UniProtKB/TrEMBL annotation:
Residue spans of biased composition, Gly residues class: 426-474
Biased composition annotated in UniProt, kind: Low complexity: 475-484
Record-linked Pfam families: YbbR (PF07949)
InterPro entries membership: c-di-AMP_regulator (IPR053154), YbbR (IPR012505)
Organism, scientific name: Cohnella lubricantis
Classification lineage: Bacteria, Bacillati, Bacillota, Bacilli, Bacillales
Annotated spans, Disordered: 412-484
Name assigned to this protein: YbbR-like domain-containing protein
């Protein structure tokens, strides 16, 4: 082996030779690539024109402002790039934008910005500015009105809608639009319902005077919960407390204060129309001490519900006292037509009444507060013993047993005069007649026979053919010349 062969077979030499060959190969390859790029690039760059790229606004503080106008809405955009880059990009990738982050209310002219796809270069944009009109937003509070539509099931009635948690909302609009708001509310259908609506979510909207929805209005809150009572027809009537029985011995009521004196009743409309009040029985015998008492209302036929069904009354019970009211006149009632009545006992025609009640109520009692009545209904002339009825203020009672008076009833119609008192003779105006005179004027009894020259019985009917001359007249007609 020669020295050269030995040197070439050395590992280090082989490595150096391999490295040298690699460097030569790398240099050749990259030298060829570096010579070709310039003519290739220069021959593949193209331009592209977009005639109507929409201008997009961003950055506006929409809580305080609204963009009312943007002019122009689109621009002409010219770009440049390789065919491959231009083809890869879609129309939506070419953006023209305007920054509104710093604007306030008013008109502004702002510079446009082009946002292009990767590999595409900007050439020109016409125009390159845009004019914007910005208006300030304002907020106003409105009361919400919920309108119900439809009709509940037959026999049922819809009440007033109740909103939760509030019945007021805030409406935000541009200042020029806010004045258009005439109503804020929502609609709720109650068609065919027989049960109350509870917690129904209703979306709210702002409406103008013509009832049209105002678009763009921001409502806070935008949704409210609504309750609508669906009930039978109802009516509110007074409660009449009826005193039943007697208070325990020695006790009286000094005050009687119900929590309410009205009740709402539910039922068919025809029945409601006929009900004027609802009664509640106060059982006096059970009131032995002061305190609150729960009293049940009397039921009324076809009334389905009472609100409230019971009434709580604050009652004050005290020891009784008595007081006599003297000289009360008696009122006569029920006397028939044509009759008169006279109280014969007592002769004064007045009575003394002893009343029992709470001391304070007795002290305040006046004679005019007590009425004494005697009922003579169905009685004719004669003498009668008639019980009297004493009407007194509530919780004040008559004591001492039943009382009565004696009444004489008489016929108070006067006797009617007989016709024919125009006869000649010595007639006197008081019904007496001289000899030969006629006597038409005194009421001397039925069927009396008149003597010669006397006049009697004007109150009785004259008999047929009662002409007489000189002698006694028949059937109470006085004799007299020419007497008919």
């Amino acid at each position: 082996m020669t020295a050269l062969d030995k040197w070439l077979s050395h590992p280090t030499v082989m490595k150096l030779v391999a490295l040298a060959l690699g460097l030569i190969l790398w240099t050749v390859v990259h030298f060829d690539d570096s010579q070709s790029p310039t003519p290739i690039v220069s021959s593949t760059i193209e331009s592209k024109t977009f005639n109507a790229v929409k201008v997009q606004a961003y950055g506006l503080n929409e809580q305080n402002y609204v963009l009312r106008n943007l002019e122009p809405e689109s621009v002409k955009l010219v770009v440049q790039g390789t065919p491959i880059d231009l083809l890869k990009a879609t129309t939506e990738d070419y953006l023209v934008r305007v920054d509104l982050s710093t604007v306030t209310a008013g008109r502004h002219t702002l510079k446009l910005q082009a946002d292009l796809p990767r590999g595409v270069n900007f050439v020109s944009m016409t125009p390159d500015t845009v004019t914007v009109d910005v208006e300030e937003m304002q907020t106003k509070e409105f009361e919400v009105e919920i309108e119900t539509s439809g009709t509940p099931a037959e026999g049922f009635k819809a009440g007033i809608p109740v909103l939760k948690p509030t019945n007021r909302v805030h409406v935000t609009l541009p200042s020029s639009e806010l004045t258009r708001v005439a109503r804020v509310g929502g609609d709720l259908s109650i068609e065919g319902l027989s049960e109350s609506v509870k917690g129904k979510s209703v979306k709210l909207a702002a409406y103008d005077a013509e009832g049209k929805t105002i678009e763009g209005a921001v409502l806070n809150p935008a949704v409210l919960e609504v309750d609508v009572p669906i009930t039978n027809p109802y009516k509110t009537v007074p409660i009449q407390f009826k005193l039943v029985g007697q208070m325990p011995a020695g006790l009286s009521i000094s005050s009687f204060k119900p929590e309410t004196e009205q009740v709402t009743i539910y039922g068919p409309q025809a029945v409601l129309d006929s009900v004027e009040f609802v009664e509640a029985d106060v059982l006096l015998g059970s009131l032995t001490k002061s305190g609150e008492v729960e009293i049940q209302l009397r039921s009324v036929d076809q009334i389905t519900e009472y609100s409230p069904a019971t009434v709580v009354v604050d009652v004050n019970v005290v020891l009784s006292q008595t007081r006599t009211i003297q000289g009360l006149p008696v009122t006569i009632e029920g006397l028939g037509d044509g009759l008169s009545a006279k109280i014969t006992d007592p002769a004064t025609e007045k009575v003394d009444i002893t009343m029992q009640g709470a001391p304070a109520m007795l002290d305040a009692l006046q004679p005019g507060d007590v009425d004494v009545v005697a009922d003579l209904s169905g009685r004719g002339p004669g003498v009668y013993t008639v019980p009297i009825v004493v009407n007194s203020p509530r919780f004040i009672d008559q004591v001492g047993g039943n009382m009565s008076i004696t009444v004489e009833i008489s016929d108070d119609q006067p006797a009617s005069a007989l016709p024919g008192d125009d006869s000649s003779g010595g007639a006197n105006g008081d019904g007496t007649a001289g000899a030969g005179g006629s006597g038409a004027g005194t009421d001397s009894g039925a069927g009396g026979q008149g003597g010669a020259g006397s006049g009697s019985g004007a109150g009785d009917a004259a008999g047929a053919g009662s002409e007489a001359s000189g002698g006694a007249g028949a059937n109470g007609q006085a004799a007299g010349s020419g007497a008919d």
